[in-house]
């Protein structure tokens, strides 16, 4: 930018001392330093903003390229699947009644007890859920009507 050496800075200092005087020179020097600091911060902010914009533009271009390649791959897979049913071994094993990807039967609740045990006891009390599980035999003994009990 400017080529200021030690000799030039000394000449500028002597001229400023003669023109401004010894009383106003420190105040003017502080003001000039503050203004130069602001200018440097402004220039660094502008440089950072420009570099961010360049990076964003680069990312947008990469995103567009990636989206285009993904679309091409999806189209190629779709064309391969729908090209002909005789060439596709996956579709030969599927009957027309099971064309959906969902299973025909409902999923089992084998992990229901595990999910119930994960809940804390205070939540079960607040939500009025059973805190203790009983086996079927214990439930039958507890709730068995009196007229069905046999005496031996």
Automatic annotation (TrEMBL):
Coiled coil: none annotated. One of its GO terms (cellular component) is TAT protein transport complex. It is found in: Cell membrane; Membrane. Residues 83-108 are annotated as: Disordered. Keywords: Cell inner membrane, Cell membrane, Membrane, Protein transport, Translocation, Transmembrane, Transmembrane helix, Transport. Residues 94-108 have a biased composition (Polar residues). The keyword Protein transport applies. It is a single-pass membrane protein. The keyword Transferase does not apply. InterPro entries: TatA/B/E, TatB. GO terms for biological process: protein transport by the Tat complex. Gene3D superfamilies: 1.20.5.3310. Its main location: membrane. One of its GO terms (molecular function) is protein transmembrane transporter activity. Pfam families: TatA_B_E. The Tat system comprises two distinct complexes: a TatABC complex, containing multiple copies of TatA, TatB and TatC subunits, and a separate TatA complex, containing only TatA subunits. Substrates initially bind to the TatABC complex, which probably triggers association of the separate TatA complex to form the active translocon. Part of the twin-arginine translocation (Tat) system that transports large folded proteins containing a characteristic twin-arginine motif in their signal peptide across membranes. Together with TatC, TatB is part of a receptor directly interacting with Tat signal peptides. TatB may form an oligomeric binding site that transiently accommodates folded Tat precursor proteins before their translocation. NCBIfam families: tatB (TIGR01410). Belongs to the TatB family. PANTHER family: SEC-INDEPENDENT PROTEIN TRANSLOCASE PROTEIN TATA, CHLOROPLASTIC. This is Sec-independent protein translocase protein TatB.
């Amino acid at each position: 930018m400017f080529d200021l050496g030690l000799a030039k800075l000394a000449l500028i200092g002597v001229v400023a001392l003669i023109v401004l005087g010894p009383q106003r020179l420190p105040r003017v020097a502080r003001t000039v330093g503050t203004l130069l600091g602001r200018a440097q911060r402004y220039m660094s902010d502008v440089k950072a903003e420009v570099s961010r914009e360049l990076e964003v533009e680069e990312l947008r271009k990469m995103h567009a390229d990636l989206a285009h390649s993904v679309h091409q791959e999806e189209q190629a897979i779709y064309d391969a699947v729908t090209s002909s049913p005789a060439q596709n071994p996956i579709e030969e094993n599927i009957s027309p009644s099971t064309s959906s990807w969902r299973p025909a039967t409902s999923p089992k609740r084998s992990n229901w007890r595990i999910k119930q045990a994960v809940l804390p006891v205070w939540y079960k009390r607040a939500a009025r859920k059973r805190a203790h599980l009983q086996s079927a035999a214990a439930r039958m003994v507890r709730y068995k009507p009196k007229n069905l009990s046999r005496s031996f």
